[in-house]
Amino acid sequence: MSRKKREILLIIYHNFLIILGSCVLAFGTALFLTKNTIVAGGLSGIAFIFQFYLQDIIGNLDTIVDIVVWIFNIAFWILSLFTLGKTFALRTLVATLVFPAFLTLFTRVDVFVELADVIGGIGQNMDMPSEIGYLLFCGICGGICVGLGISLTFLGKGSTGGVDVLSFLLNKLFGIKVSICSLAIDSTIIIIGMICLCVKDINLILNCLCGIISAIITSLVIEVMFSRKQNAFILHIISDKHNEISDYIMNKMERGVTIINVKGAYTGQDRIMIETVLSRNEYIEIKDVISKIDPQAFLTFTDTNAVYGEGFRENFGASVFKKRKK
Predict the structure, then answer these.
(1) 3-state SS, residue 79
(2) Among 87, 95, 118, 77, which residue's Cα sits nearest to residue 15?
(3) What ranges do the domains of the chain cover?
(4) Helices 3-28 and 128-155 sit at what angle, rounded to 10 degrees?
(5) Helices and strands, number each (H, E), in the chain
(6) Which fold has domain 232-304?
(7) pTM: predicted TM-score of the whole model, two decimal places
(8) 59-101 per-position pLDDT tens digit
(9) Which residue among 79, 139, 194, 234 has the highest number of C-beta atoms inside a 10 angstrom radius?
(10) How far apart are the C-alpha atoms of 96 and 85, rounded to whole Å?
């Protein structure tokens, strides 16, 4: 297979993951969370709070969750363009448009509206103990769908947009793992939602607590599928095109490279081995790049839990002894 065909297939594959992830995310949000008044963070949580209070002002109001998500998604995409760069913005553009589109589909097309009504009707016809179990079930299912959807878009080298932009921005600025950032942001939205909704109706506190559980599950799913509980990995590469690979890692990814002279025990042939340390977010990128430059390259990935130094965490005590620039 030629390099051009391989690149086209990779682009199709990544966009498929982004579209699939956006679909799963919208499905879980529409049918399990917002329909059952579960504020689990994200733009949908913000949108639901908007809708909840606008109903008092405007009166009977059809769902506007998807409309608010459209507005905020576009706003955060513009923010990502100026803070995270054009490359990230382009990767986020697909989900920025597809996720709200699927959300509109699941909240406005009759088939899905009726399905959501059936799911919602189950909880409304239960006694209190059963209703608690039902809301917990919806929170768990919603959290799994949201976490799965977000992880798929991350694996597709994209993002669902919205508050995920803030997660990547915090990751870039402070090195905090994406899953932790996502949990912190969602928890903040849930707390604000809990205060706002419970002031109006104290009976909604149960829904808010289920939202917290849903957000935790979302973070755990992202951790397992995307972050894999690791902060970084050590990569060893043996390739005849080591110069091209080294140039890309140093100039495009802005990571350090160590060149090691090695010899094959069986052939006795002298080879060049590249050693570098990359973050978990760069895992897919480097695999794709090396497959384009040299499909015959030999790669080994070694997970590591902590990396200290430039580009990663500060060395122990570095922040204490660092001199301020005058």
Answers:
(1) helix
(2) 95
(3) 3-227, 232-304
(4) 160
(5) 12, 4
(6) Alpha-Beta Plaits (3.30.70)
(7) 0.68
(8) 555 677 788 888 888 988 898 888 877 777 887 888 888 988 9
(9) 139
(10) 15
